[in-house]
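In this section we turn from sequence analysis to structure. A common task in structural bioinformatics is to predict how a protein folds when a small molecule is present, because the ligand can shape the pocket around it. The inputs are simple: the amino acid sequence and a SMILES string for the ligand, here pyridoxal-5'-phosphate. Study the lines below before reading on.
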Amino acid sequence: MTDSFFLPDPDIPDPDDAFSSAPLRLTIDLGALADNWRDMARRSGKARAASVVKADAYGVGIEDAGQTLYHAGARDFFVAVPEEGVTLRPHAPEARIFVLSGVWPGTEHLFFEHDLVPVIASEEQLAFWMATVSEHGDHPCALHVDTGFNRLGLPLEEALHLAEDVSRPASFSPVLVLSHLACADDPASPMNRQQLEAFRSLSAAFEGIESSLAASAGTFLGSDYHFDLTRPGIALYGGEAVKGVANPMRPVVTAEARILQIREAKKGQVVSYGASHALSRDSRLAIVAAGYADGYLRNLSGHGVALRQTGLAGAQGFIAGHKVPIVGRITMDMTIFDVTDLPPDAIQAGDYIELFGTNMPVDDVARAAGTIGYELLTGLGLRYERRYLDAE
Ligand SMILES: *Cc1c(COP(=O)(O)O)cnc(C)c1O
């Protein structure tokens, strides 16, 4: 089919409105974000719920997300690196901001100037922090202890020893002791109880100091895991925290891309790089302006990506009330969807297809690539035009 020449539709909104003309766009529902935080705060029972806003608030945007969460009532925030804390500070003026990667020589001034709390995770960092506070004056810190995850943290034995060490400097008075669960997304895992028992001994050893064990998934494990502060991240952004159960959170991010062209192709013809997909019927194909440079992972392709071993089908998009499959390989800037099963006049070039969001759960899309919603959200490229829906 030759593409028909079409005149602008009078319904097309103001061309100056960047959102309505963008090839790629994100709608970020700050009301849903605030609701999700309130929901996690309620699920945290007697504990306070913090907000984890590392990695640009999981792609949502740390400034808008931070401000929204602060207005919803969050007063404890976690970031990965000091620069994220610096960006967040004006949007969360009275909040405590914890920096999970701790403090390193050359960054210490940021902790004092922007009132950030380093999360100390090793003997070396502790020694450096002690030297720093003796020079600059007292400043709160937190302590990250490993209880079996073997990622970051002071070994449990060292931490217990530190708690009992009467000769430890008086200036060492953490405001929070935390640890992280390895398997909280699987409530049946025996790791959860083991880490809980280890953390209980730690929390008792640091009596009088607040303690925190649960991230999103851990919060769902119940009140034993809540201690004084929960640390939800993914659940705030609408992602799935616990495997195999319905996700109760509201979706926050909707990613859409424009259909650049609709083409008719014949049975037997092939699609995209590597000619890896042959059409089994005469087909209508929508060529869409999103590719792996936009975080729409190449592994979401249905066929012809050798490394993808998680299932035979690729991801689906959502348009005109229907789910439509990807055909052929995803390319850097474009993806091809099979729209043959849609009514012929249901869609046209210029329409938007939802990559994930309110109709296509981000985790369903992620699963098609053998990954998790976290990776899709934090990997969104720079080309999306963003629209924030206000919380109020
Ligand atoms: C990322 C992170 C969190 C948040 O985890 P979610 O699974 O996104 O809720 C909490 N605590 C620590 C230490 C983290 O690294």
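The two ends are 47 Å apart (CA to CA). As an exercise, try to locate the residues that line the pyridoxal-5'-phosphate site and compare them with your own expectations.
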